[in-house]
Amino acid sequence: MGVPALQLTDVRKRFGQTAIINGVNLEVAAGERHAIIGPNGAGKSSLFHLISARFPVTSGSILLKGESVTGLSPHQINRRGLSRSFQVTNIFHNLSVFENVRCAVLWSLGYRYSFWQRLAGLTDANLQARRVLGEIGLEHRGDTVAGILSYAEQRALEIGITIAGGADVILLDEPTAGMSNSETADAVALIRRVTEGKTLLMVEHDMSVVFDLADRISVLVYGEIISTGTPEQIRADRAVQEAYLGTGFSAAEIDRA
Amino acid sequence: MSGAPPLLHRRRLLAWGALAAVLIVLPLLFGKSFALSLLCQAGIMVIFALSYNMLLGQTGLLSFGHAVYFGIGAFATIHALNRVDHGLPLPVTLLPLAGAAAGLAAGLLFGYVSTKRAGTTFAMISLGLGELVASASLMFPALFGGEGGVSGNRVVGHAVLGISYGPQIQMYYLIAAWTFVCIVAMYALTQTPLGRMANAVRDNPERAQFVGYDPQSVRFLMLALSGLFAGIAGGLSALNYEIVTAETLGAQTSGIVLLMTFVGGVGFFYGPIIGAVLITLLQIALAGVTNAWLFYFGLFFLVMVLYAPGGIASLLHMHRRLWDAGRLARVLPAYAWVGPPLLLFFGGLIGLVEMAYQRADGDDMTMKVFGSRLDLSTATPWLAALLAAAAGLALLRASWPRVAEAWRQALASAEGGEE
Amino acid sequence: MEFTLISLLNGVTYGLLLFMLSSGLTLIFSMMGILNFAHASFYMLGAYFAYQISVYLGFWPALLFAPLLVGLVGALVERYGMRKVHKFGHVAELLFTFGLSFLIEEVVHLVWGLSAVDYRVPHFLDGTLFTLYTTAFPIYKGFMMLVSVGMLAALYAALTRTRIGLIIQAAISKPEMVEALGHNVPRIFMLVFGGGTALAGLAGVIGGNAFVTEPGMAAAVGNIVFVIVVVGGLGSLPGAFIASLLIGVIQTFSVAIDYSVADFARQIGFHVQVTPTLARLSISQLAPMLPYLLMVGILIFRPRGLMGARES
Description:
The structure holds three protein chains of three kinds. Chain A is an alpha/beta fold. In chain A, 36% of the residues lie in helices and 23% in strands. Chain A starts with 5 loop residues before the first strand and ends with a helix. Chain B has two domains: 5-289, ABC transporter involved in vitamin B12 uptake, BtuC (Orthogonal Bundle), CATH 1.10.3470; 325-418. In chain B, the strands form two sheets. Chain B has a two-stranded antiparallel sheet with strand order 1-2. Chain B has a two-stranded antiparallel sheet with strand order 3-4. In chain B, β3 (366-369) and β4 form a beta hairpin. Chain C has a two-stranded antiparallel ribbon with strand order 1-2. Chain C contains 14 helices and two strands. By secondary structure, chain C is mainly α. The mean pLDDT of chain C is 82. In chain C, α2 (39-57) crosses α9 and α5 (139-161) runs antiparallel to α8 (185-208). Chain C is globular, with a radius of gyration of 21 Å. Chain C has a domain at 2-215. Chains B and C meet through α5, α11, α13 and α15 of B and α3, α4, α9 and α14 of C.
């Protein structure tokens, strides 16, 4: 039992009088694939925003690999090995696909704010960027301007940018949103491949993806985690069934959803 | 794919070589001294505008006070020039380095304050800082020379290899050399990690954070470096004109560089070069001919913002695409249709504007036009101009759809051909 | 004592005028996200239109029609300019208003010439309202205060108590929703822009004859207005109010104070050996710099302004 990759203790977030996150306790073990599910408006994306420091927490603590990250800014957290994707595709739309991915590897390779080194001569950065492009299946689109990619290609690029820097804790926010069945299957295979050996925390609505990928699942309802467990445990949990479907439905119905 | 450096390298070197050749040969093509001073001014403005685009086009920072770095560099250089007389061991050739150092220092100082924010707030800060420095300059006459500015003499020290910088032609080659160096340096900067991350921060500062970069640091560094190059331009200006006044770091200078860069095109590295040359040409040519040149500049700028926000470079790029696909000939006939209405419209407009300026500023109510004398107190010339403008506008609106249609077809054909 | 009171009154009058300008600017910014660089140009147009109208028809028609005329120009600018540029992004919008400010100044030069025009305080408002000790406080300044306060009260009432005002407030934060509810949001934008510029025009009508009416007046006051909105906090009306009064008072006081740095040092017991230039600098000489110093100070210590929203 090593240090958990992520540890949230009594995390709360309030906007004015409205409480979005109401005391979340969550522990994600290193190397685990953990999914967060819940009805719309439960606060799943907000939770991600808090972990990645897009918003500051109102109270509570967040530990990344055993060290506190509360109060740090997003880039500082990223430099400590946490990387995230976004629900609404968030890429560098005027740069080429290759450039997008290369930007994502620069800091991790130590190039920082260098203005004395030529990009074309950074062999390791270029190689790694090309490798990631291959992994996400966009090697033939390297020179295309990112803004004109198709939706599914942009989602793949989004994932590529997220993992390119070699972060070991990956947060994916609804990676398969808006995808067809075949696209989803491809995406799941991609996610499984690129998060091999890393810690994955994922928000998802698509239950088949969740039950396929996740080692453990947490259910977030009204800013609180009502249940955490393995997929089987969650499937059988009464409280979860009620939260999603109201009373009187069976596990079989959830399976079909 | 992105790569194939050897070929690109050769093409790139050829391009630089061509640029150098052009710079060397230019003054020999134009004999008059008037042309020479124009070239000198253009060279200085090219460096200035390129430094400005490091902020606007590359990092997405709109600044209304960039003249501060230009002016501070100019003042530093002219003071250094005056020290050369008293034993400062710096050759005049390298004096713009004083400008560079001062511009960098100012960039570091002001950049720390300004880059805490981006977007509109940054623009406002830059405006305020510009005004602050401009008003401060009148308070410290020792540094800024008060009303009369600070002057110097660039013919100091020993002439090395016959170069004393007395003759304007020698000044031109100094400017040309510095312009070449700065263009290469600023271009090289766009191909570095910082340069690329500046683009990333421009496109999506939030995403840049989540790949490990602090947007504020990126902006800060770009501002400081931009100040360095603006300082070099200022230094060259100080040497060229041998005087620096408060106006050098004032609002009008900030406005002009903004105009140049935007009109040239912020989305392309060479855009500001086009803008700087064009506006310098227009400024010198128009200011001698009409009092309304400021009005025309304002109008030109507005028209560009409304109809061609990508600047001249983007227009060239669009035509280049058609040229590459062999479809350029298709749009040319349409241009022939809109040409005359455009001329009519502008003729009428210019007539109105010139007459108005003559009436507002001139001593008498007559105006000399192509040899004949117009009486501005009567209604006739006004009505004629108004009619011409209105007719031109109407014809323009009627014929413009031809251009739009021609473009649509040409582009479609180009796409179809490429498949 | 007398000096303080009179300067305070003058400062508040000037500050209220500045608030008329900065409130319009803040409204436009809150609603459309653009900082209208040409806002002070509409102030200038108000003064010039009022001058021209008053030459033919007198002061009261000028007071009524000039702001409306300016508002009309503003609405047209929004309809045919801003709306077109909107799709090119924020930078293009800002640049459009920047170019516009330039052009308006040149058009004014074109039509009315470079020198100041003789836009005067009407004789029935010319005179002393009351005398404080030995200084006379003019009726016209009192009139200015009256118009400013009245206009702002009317604005407040309109925004918070009328239907259109509530719709505008809603459209400021959620334009798509308001449009989905069936309101013509583009027309609302045009209304707000026209209203904001009309407010600036009104400020010009009453300010143009108290101060001078010449083509440089826009630039002179324009920069101060930007300082105000930054200091007050972009998008905050109460912040703009406080900042306007603050800067109005600071500017009025500082121009008249001859206190120098050396004087201050002597007061606290030093004989300062700073360079003579620095020591001899009096507050009145520093006066033009003070608003910008304040702005830079705010930006260092409290970047969101006095009452602005924190950037997330």
